[in-house]
Amino acid sequence: MAESALRRFVTHGRTVCRNGGVRCLFTEASDPEALSDVKTTTSVKSFSELPGPRGLPIVGTVTEYFRKANKGQMHEVQRKFHRQYGKIFKEKFGSYDNVSVGDPSLVEEILRAEGKYPHRPPYEAWVLYNELRKRRGGIMTANGEQWRGNRSAMNPKLLRPKAVGDFVDGINSVVTDFVDRLRFLKDREGEGEFVPHLPNELNKFTMEALGYVLLDTRLGCLERQVDPKIQNFITSIATMFLTGHQMMAFTKVYKNLRLKTWRMHVKAWDTIYEIAQEYIEAKMEDVAERLSGDVQEGDRVDFLTYLVGNGQMSRQEIYENITEVLLGGVDTAANSMSFLLYSLAKNTDAQDTLRDEVDSVLDGKTCTYDDLQRMPYLKAVVKETLRLYPPIPINARILQEDTIVDNTLIHKGTCVLLNNYTMSRDPSIFSNPDQFVPERWLKAEAKEWHPFSILPFGYGARSCVGRRIAETEIYLATIRVCQNFNLKLSDKFDITPSVRTQLTAGAELPILFEER
């Protein structure tokens, strides 16, 4: 491990220094003595010297992102700008001065230099909604001390591998019902070949799995007849993410004029909270009874019971955090599953290799947590999917102090965009970057890819709190699909990934399910 760390330092050498209150980040190994006085030894560039698109007065580059040809294609527009202007560029996006970074060494420096409270900017629409409804914000929408308190209370239950392993049996039960529903829909509505609205069915699966993990409750998302409020919840999540994205440049204008997009956004959030609170309230009485009884150390407890029992959050904070984990988890894992199944259908050699591994390890039985540790190709398939289709194609940070990045002074308060999608498709970083090659992540065949060239769940303190749960859902569902079906690609249409906060595949997937 020490040797690997040393090798990475030599390869991607970095130095962080401070000079007059300015944080300095360098991407090449430097002599510390030569950095004793940055102002005299280095010609630091000003922000204005950064290259970038000029844009239009007032709106900047907003029109480039939202014109018809680029609608939903922010990730591709950013990729185009990086090809044109290099690894780091600036742009005026409405009232914001943004800096975009598409180099893993620079991304590493920025993220490793974060302080105690990394500031990930939520959509302004989320902040304005919380102010409107007098909410403090949960793990997704809060920052600063409020976020830190939320995160500290949640980490032990959601991020420790053993804690996640306790949920495998229950998630497997959900997976069984999910496969049954896929088969039911395929045979009844899909001419025995395809599953209509498959991404939406994946949303139902992830919602059902999270209901079990968070509330120890089966919500009924996979029944033959699904309660309309479940679909209302899923649709409201999509609407909330989409409208937040659409208003990102001039949110206050939308709000102050009460335009339709703002009204849709508020209604979507209200619906999400109303339905989530109904589920939480229904479980609260059971939680109180359980906590008043004899809970033994080592007993499996759901997330709600854990939060109530540890006493670190108020009731309102519990409502808000569980709601945000639920809505974020429903969308993230389902979108990733959509791209994964599509990639397997498109790349049958990888599908065959994965199926061979699944059959060899499991021999037809249900997967356990220990079994997962013996499936390197499964994990490589998931990682390669997340490289090609990162859930969050563009991450962001607000700099908390004046910072020198790549010899350019970037001022405190600047929004820095970290381009996961651009890096994952960069031929100077990955060989054959647009091809699905899980083998690149296997120890026997992989080169040392820069660890910050793929960050599907973020990094550090602000990484996705539900990462391990999402990965476990994806692993177990993928295994069971491989055990039951051969996936083939339909020639009737293809997908066009688009951004609605997260990267999505669309309403339909060109996948045919052939019984094994």
TrEMBL record:
One GO term (biological process): C21-steroid hormone biosynthetic process
Membrane protein topology class: Peripheral membrane protein
Positions with a binding annotation for heme: C464
Compartments it resides in: Mitochondrion inner membrane
PROSITE patterns: CYTOCHROME_P450
Pathway: Lipid metabolism; C21-steroid hormone metabolism
GO cellular component, one term: mitochondrial inner membrane
Span of the signal peptide: none
Gene Ontology MF terms: cholesterol monooxygenase (side-chain-cleaving) activity; heme binding; iron ion binding
Heme as UniProt keyword: yes
E.C. numbers: 1.14.15.6
Keywords in alphabetical order: Cholesterol metabolism, Heme, Iron, Lipid metabolism, Membrane, Metal-binding, Mitochondrion, Mitochondrion inner membrane, Monooxygenase, Oxidoreductase, Steroid metabolism, Steroidogenesis, Sterol metabolism, Transit peptide
Alphabetized InterPro entries for the sequence: CYP11_CYP27_families, Cyt_P450, Cyt_P450_CS, Cyt_P450_E_grp-I, Cyt_P450_sf
Record has Metal-binding as a keyword: yes
Cofactor needs: heme
Record family assignment: Belongs to the cytochrome P450 family.
PANTHER family reported in the protein's UniProt record: CHOLESTEROL SIDE-CHAIN CLEAVAGE ENZYME, MITOCHONDRIAL (PTHR24279:SF3), CYTOCHROME P450 (PTHR24279)
Protein name: Cholesterol side-chain cleavage enzyme, mitochondrial
Species the sequence originates in: Patella caerulea
Taxonomic path: Eukaryota, Metazoa, Spiralia, Lophotrochozoa, Mollusca
